[in-house]
C-alpha cells in the first residue's frame, strides 16, 4: 500500500513526500480512507505508530473545503499534555504546508489573550488541552457549535490524568452531528464505555504495539546499597555519584534522565550543572516558554542531557536518543518500558540504565516479570558490590519498608507513593501549569512515554 492509494489530495501527498515518508504506517493505511469518508474511528494505537498523521492528513483535505468563522473552530483536537498538543500543531504545519489552514493552540502556560485573538479571527483547527479549553469557553471567548470533527487523542492518558470529566463536558457542548476520531493506547472497560458514548458506528482499528523493542536496548542497573546510604547523604547522594560515573563511562550523545518527583528533577539538574555536565531540566512547573526553548535546544543537539519527569517528557519525539537513565526506578513497570523505549529507535542500539536501592526490589522484580528477563548489574567502576552481593548484604536485615512484607499489590496503589488521588491532582496541576498542593509536593508522577514505532523496526523495503 502506498500513500497514493489512500485518497489524499495532491497537496497533502506532496507534503508527505517532502517529509520523507515513503509508505504509510499500518494505522495510516487503515484509518485514512475511512476518515476521508466521514466515518467515526476507534483507534487502538500508541504514540510512535504514526497515528498523528493518520488523523491530520485526512483532516487537512476535509478542511480544504469550507472556511472558518469567527470564534467558531471547525475542528477540535483534544490532547492530554501541552507537549503533545504542540507536536500535533507542528504536524499541521508540516503536512498542511501546501494548504491554507488556520489553527490555534489552546494550552496552559501561555497568554490566554494571544490564544483568544487567534480564535476570535476564526480557525480551522483548534488543538487544545481540556482545562484551558474549558477556561476559554467559560469566559465566553469561544463557541463550539460549529465543530464538524472532534479528535480525542490518548484517551487512556486523559482518563489517567483525571481529565475525563472535562472531556465529557466538552463533548456535550459539541453538535451531535459530527465526525469523531478517538484514539487510545489501551482499551480498558472505562475507555470502551466512553468510546461507546462519543462515537457512532465507528470503524475499529487496532495496530499492534511494537513486538519486541526491548531487544534493541542494552539494559543495566546500578545498585546503591544501604551501607553507602548510611555513610551520610542518603541514597540520592550515592545515586548522583553513580550517575556521574555512568555519564563519564558511557558514550552519551543525548539522554533523558528520569526522576519520579518534580522536586528531584531540579535538585539533580543543579547537581549535574555544578559538576560541569551539559544538562537542562524539564518539568510541568516550568513556564511554557522555558519548556519550549529547552526542547528546541535538545532536539537541535545543543543540550546533551535533559532531566525530566514522566509527564514533561511525554510524547517528546526525538529519534536519536542514545541513552535513557532512570535516576529513580519507575513505580509502575509499564512506565519503565515507555521510558526506555525512547532510546534504540530507528534501528540504533540504545542503552538504558536504572539506579536502584534495596527498597526498589519490588519495582525491579515487577519490571523483570513484565519484560520476561532479568536486568544485570552494570559495573560503573566505583567498586560497587553488585546485585548478587547486595542481595546478601542488604537483604540480611530487611527494613520496615521492605517490599517483602507487603503483598504483591500494584506499586501504583502503594501508600508509600502517596494516595493515587493526590497524585492525580498533582498531574492535573502540572498539566495546567499550577504548583502542586502540599499533599502533592512529593508525589511520584506516573510515567508517560511512547514506544518504538513498529515501522522503524522493520527492515527497509526496496523501492517499487
Ligand atoms: P506518531 O505516532 O504520530 O507520534 O509518529 C511517530 C513518528 O513517526 C513521528 O516522528 C512521525 O514524523 C513519524 N512518521 C509518521 N508517519 C510516518 C511514515 N509514514 N513514515 C515514516 N515516518 C513516519
Could you please describe the fold and organization of this structure?
The model is unreliable at 397-454 (pLDDT under 50). The protein has 464 residues and is α/β, with parallel strands linked by helices. It has helices at 10-18, 26-36, 51-64, 82-95, 112-121, 130-138, 155-160, 164-173, 189-198, 226-229, 234-249, 262-274, 288-299, 310-313, 333-340, 361-371, 386-395, 420-432, 454-457, and strands spanning 41-44, 75-78, 103-106, 125-128, 149-152, 179-184, 203-206, 217-223, 255-258, 279-282, 305-308, 323-326, 350-356, 376-377. It has 2 domains: 3-206, P-loop containing nucleotide triphosphate hydrolases (Rossmann fold, 3-Layer(aba) Sandwich); 217-395, Rossmann fold (3-Layer(aba) Sandwich). The protein has a 7-stranded parallel β-sheet, sandwiched between helices. A 7-stranded parallel β-sheet has the order 10-11-9-12-13-8-14, sandwiched between helices. Strand 12 (323-326), helix 15 and strand 13 form a beta-alpha-beta unit. Helix content is 41%, strand content 13%. Adenosine monophosphate binds next to helix 3.
